[in-house]
Design goal:
Number of domains: 1
Mean pLDDT: 86
Helix content: over 70%
Low-confidence stretches: none
Largest sheet: 2 strands, antiparallel
């Protein structure tokens, strides 16, 4: 596996996920205890909102209904994004194991070649 593939498939996604979780972590702490379910959903919002093809747009609502529908859209985006986030973590793990395997094979080839 080349360095470019490793960076594209492992390093960049993991770094992006770490940055998002670092940013949203303070919003998920109550009384010094982190609610990890809320952290997972809130950190999935950036990954899920871009995957949503349907937004419920409130028509004829007052400001409370409009804000409620916007919050509902973000909640649905967070749920979709948490699944996308899980998938990206699994794929990064797969590519990490693949690169470790290729590295091990490279070391074995170098050791027995001489």
């Amino acid at each position: 596996m080349r360095r470019k593939e490793f960076l594209e498939n492992v390093a960049v996604p993991l770094l992006g996920i770490a940055v998002v979780m670092f940013i949203v972590y303070p919003f998920c702490v109550e009384n010094g205890v982190c609610d990890y379910r809320k952290l997972w959903i809130v950190s999935g919002i950036p990954f899920g909102v871009q995957k949503m093809y349907f937004w419920m747009i409130p028509k004829g609502f007052d400001i409370g209904g409009t804000v409620g529908m916007f919050a509902f859209n973000l909640l649905v985006g967070g749920l979709i994004g948490s699944m996308v986030l899980t998938w990206r973590l699994l794929m990064a793990g797969k590519y990490l194991l693949k690169s470790i395997g290729y590295g091990g094979l490279w070391i074995v080839k170098k050791a027995f070649r001489t």
